[in-house]
């Protein structure tokens, strides 16, 4: 049976590049007739016949995945095959979708050769036109063309396609994503004029020493190349062309020269980007320079359309990437829709194009019978690689080919590498599974810890990339800064690709009509991997998560810092890169946990002689696109601002820039220098912030409090605060618990629960003279916290100092260390002076600047697809909560979160719609929280970001403001 035959299929035309031309084309996308059968044997006979009656069928859009339209259901597994590992056989219960389309043709189609192209059919399709079988295709995310010359008819034609959910190809397509089926990419009829350009391979090299571009076109056609802008007019395509001095293509300045390749009968528009990729001195270089890959892994996913991603969504992805300083994409784990690559050429992204190949599920059976080493699968491997390389070879954005993902190793992979290297010597080969680097050109790893990368940096002799790192699942990733430091320290550590770009949640409705994003298990799958499918930097609807905001800061192409010493006028000097950057302002040493407010930032000393250092970390670009501005804020309120003249700084260089004299301030003040786009670009409007840096120019002062009677607060006989200035409150009391993040689930959470940190008991030891002494500990354990709440105040203020001392042996990091309290639900508008505007954690707070921010309590929440700890604001000097009439101000130095539910509610919820607002605003006022890490895949919280039980104290002052 063709379904479980290991061959790539039959009937297909040789693979060739995807291009448009002036030859006749007809898009066949649209509403097709559709019928789903539970298995091939139950599928109707004769669907290929023109006379077949499909009137009882339904209508289904092409392209689409049928499960996204109510036929069958999506199913998610990460590694495991959802069927027995019995290659190449697949279940008899193999959902089979029959498609039919009737379309009309004019006579001109009949006078020339024509191919029928499918850009993606998942997983196996058998195709007929006007009753004649064209062939069978496998390789879901790869194109296939069938020759239909001579089969077309004037007037009505009938195309029939039988698509099987499972096929032998499914063994090669075990990517970590939803199993979704159908004709999910475009279907097109393409005339192939006799004497036309059937295929071409345009090589456009850049010689960085001379600045010259060189073009070489491989084509079997007799053709000419014209690039009027370069003065190239009808140059014979079969001999190399010196294009003279050109502007090279880079991801930073994606210069494309438009031209066309023409034969007597066909004209093909081409976009030429001159660039040369090499490996020299053990480094991956483009145009002679080391590049640093600031990348993401991108799957094709849409919360409503599945893998049939609309073009505008693909463009939105690219715009968001560019706006967040991302410069590279790995097309995990299959070639994307071809239009995506056009956009990468146009907007500028380095691309690793990855073959549609993964056999990860064989790991469950010890890689027994893994296709990568089995000769019978060789054709299928070569076929897949060929179809990718041939389709995509003309994209300047693609700088490496990847053989696939997680298919272990074997001779078939080596064979595909050898083929690709011969076919395209201009692009290095990537594959993470070749750990010994026998047939790849770069050493690639996933989720290596920081210390391992450091070790690799010291020893590797070839370029090293992390094809996946910093698993962006739920709240996180933490530890990005420390990875960047390694990429800047070791020239051969050339960055990598965050896992991953998008949460693959699927939009669903609760019975009462509220929207939420579904993940594995939500469709009743017997076997599934739960929320591992939602691990992206953007939510399923492309809303950036805090992780993306943090990443944008980490990836900034400029570094703006305080220049330590005044000196002579601005001069350019080499940016200290590669370098070990010092811990930036904001590195939070938890060693001292006395929160009287240890302010972060660099104290710049004299306000009238301030200098900043601007380092250009682009690989190629200067600062021409940017403008610089400064502003001075006192307690978050702007005092002065102005433009900043920054000299031209070449890539890799830095300069020190003098600021104008600043007005004097009396309270805590920060200078912010911002680099933004000077004019509109294709990917963001003028004014878009690209990079910023902050310098503290005036320290804060602590307000002195007059002692008096504790009349602002009302306490009960146990010393528990009941109200402040008449506003009912609950707490404050010691809190150590947070709703575990998904990274916690893979690291500390099991231990936390086992020890009972989610169910602490509070025993009051004494209440005396404004001091409540208690012991806080989990049941069944002998360790605990000795806690003393000291209350002082008068009729205007109420001050609480909490002294905490661990007792016994605390065996693991704490989730958090702080206080929880609650206010009436009407106090739902917050303003604070501290870091913001977004959430931040010990190992993920570079993007949070010091300022004054406002938000409603609802806006403070981050709606992670799986509810978990979120919304923490750090280094807060004061915060106010108001109900519109009354305002409670809290001063001190603390991190805070405010939400309408408790940590326990967050912990219990499985989807955002499980969270029900209570009548209270629950506040956490913390000394610190444990970091985030990326333990879902990769290292947990680094030691310097772990929160351990230790002596600590916090002082908070409450006052009612009218
Ligand atoms: C990697 C894999 C990815 C994804 C990730 C975990 O092993 O290559 O596809 O599964 O782990 O989210």
From TrEMBL:
Residues 709-959 form the Beta galactosidase small chain/ domain. Keywords: Glycosidase, Hydrolase. GO terms for molecular function: beta-galactosidase activity. The keyword Hydrolase applies. It comes from the Bacteria. This is Beta-galactosidase. Residues 562-593 are annotated as: Disordered. Belongs to the glycosyl hydrolase 2 family. It catalyses: Hydrolysis of terminal non-reducing beta-D-galactose residues in beta-D-galactosides. PROSITE patterns: GLYCOSYL_HYDROL_F2_1, GLYCOSYL_HYDROL_F2_2. Its EC number is 3.2.1.23. InterPro entries: B-gal_small/dom_5, Bact_Beta-galactosidase, Beta-gal/glucu_dom_sf, Gal_mutarotase_sf_dom, Galactose-bd-like_sf, GH, GH-type_carb-bd, Glyco_hydro_2.
